[in-house]
Amino acid sequence: MNDDVWRHICTFLSPETLRDVAKVHPVFYEQWMKHKYRRIELSRGDKLAKRFWEHLECVPSPIFELQSGLTVLGNSRGNKRIGSSVKCVVIKPWSINPRSMTYQGRTRRLLQAFAMLCDPDYTKAQLQKKIDKRLDKDTKRVDTLFSTMVNVQEYHIDWDQDPTHHALLFRSFLKSGLESWRDTLTHLALHIPLEHLATLARITLPSLCTFNIQFTTLALSLREINIYLDGFMVFLHNLKDTLTSLSISSNPRSEHLDLSRFFRYLGSFPHLREMGLKIPFDGGQLSDPHTLCNFIARHTHTLRSLSLQTTRCAVHSSPVAPESAFWIQTVLSTLQSPSHPHSPAHPPLPAFPELRSLTLALRPLKAPLDLISTFLRAHAGTLEHLALLDRTLDLYDLRTTLLPPLLSRWPVLDLRFLAPLKSLEMRVDRISPHLLILLAQELPGLRKLRLEPADRGMYAVVSTFSPISVAQYMSLTLPATQERFEEYLDRHQFGGANWKLEQLEIVSSLSSASTTTGRMQLQMHQILSSRVPGLESVNEVGPASL
Fold first, then answer.
1. From CA 178, how far away is CA 188, in angstroms rounded?
2. DSSP letters of 17-31?
3. Which of 129, 315, 363, 421 qualifies as a cystine partner to 281, CB 3.0-4.6 A?
4. Which residues contact 461 (CB under 8 A, 6 or more apart)?
5. What is the per-residue pLDDT across 374-405, written as a single tens digit (0 to 9) for each?
6. DSSP sequence for 328-386
């Protein structure tokens, strides 16, 4: 049978099945190798890692015993090395430590003692010599290894913020990797010391589409930061003809970092479809949010995904203005008005006519939700994915502020249209029957729901949607068994039969081994599986960075 037919058959086989039948036919083996070595991680330079590197440089030559009795050599189909199957490389820089000698002879000890008498720094010099020797070996091995992996499309460097890692190692990761995969690389994610970003200015990647960068400046001064970012901007501007996704994040340990100047001088990217920014929630690393607004405004007609997220508060060298914490509200209000006015009779015009995905951190936690509501109302006709993070939402917030904008009305006929929203993620106070009823009625087209409950108990809510205090809300909320939970759903006409929900994920801060975690997943699956016909899975997952 033709090899193309065998390859088509492989598309229907699971990875486990491919592994089991790898010796049946050379095509099966080829596809199994591509799956097994699609993604590799390099995080150490010890003997075990070096043996793995040497293995990637080898040419596989398995022998397949076919039913016909013929013997087929795998390398007869081409002398491709194992490294050619690698599509994704993840590097976590490692420390270079010289091996200590466990035993030294008497003569060696005497010579060493004499050398130390002549040169007090002899031991230090010998140690540095060993480090340089190991560093030279590791960089040469990395260069050789990268040259064998000719089909890499994704490249990640994830620095652990240890300042003792050697600069030569980072330069080898950048220069060798980016030059070896210049024509094939489409996805690049970097978290490296800021001083190495300037070396990217000489590199061009004509096929790169997705770029993620995390800034960690530690104690660098603002002047040094700006110098390094200027060289980095040269690299970014060289990507203007191909870049479709740009994600920027900063580490809270960046004491003097201010991205305002960076966004002020950042140019336009004609094909940019996705934009993301993640900085500490106090806004101190973006002293002038209007520079970010101006950058986003140049891409409003092309952006399909917008993500504005926050991390924990950062350490700053000087006091931060209180209004800086409202940087997300500033961005949304500036983009939505006054160039996009609206009135109660006419819905606001969308600032992003092609927007499909929106991820927002609801910070500060007690800030009004009016600006968020207005922005959602303007883009309700196009949004397919919505994630509202950080702030715990209750039924009153959803009923009065966040869900109504997604169910806009036609100005003349006053008829609601179904929102195209397919995926919703948010943090809620608790998972209650009233919450599920509300979502099923208001968002019947929802396919994926991801909830992070602050309280993991099962409750039956008997309160109204009127604003009440926390104490009143708790007093009107009763703990519920699974039977009572189901009874409440049925009594209040839960519209699960018309709900298109396929996947429910419950975010848990507990360990996966917790009995509470498994019980919640099992209970929700038992409750909803018979009431939502299209439900395929109920999963409990750990918190993940978005």
1. 9
2. HHHHTTTT-HHHHHH
3. 363
4. 395, 432, 433, 434, 435, 476, 477
5. 999 999 889 999 999 999 998 899 999 999 88
6. HHHHHHHHHSSSS--BTTBPPPPS-TT--EEEEE--STTS-SHHHHHHHHHHTTT--EE
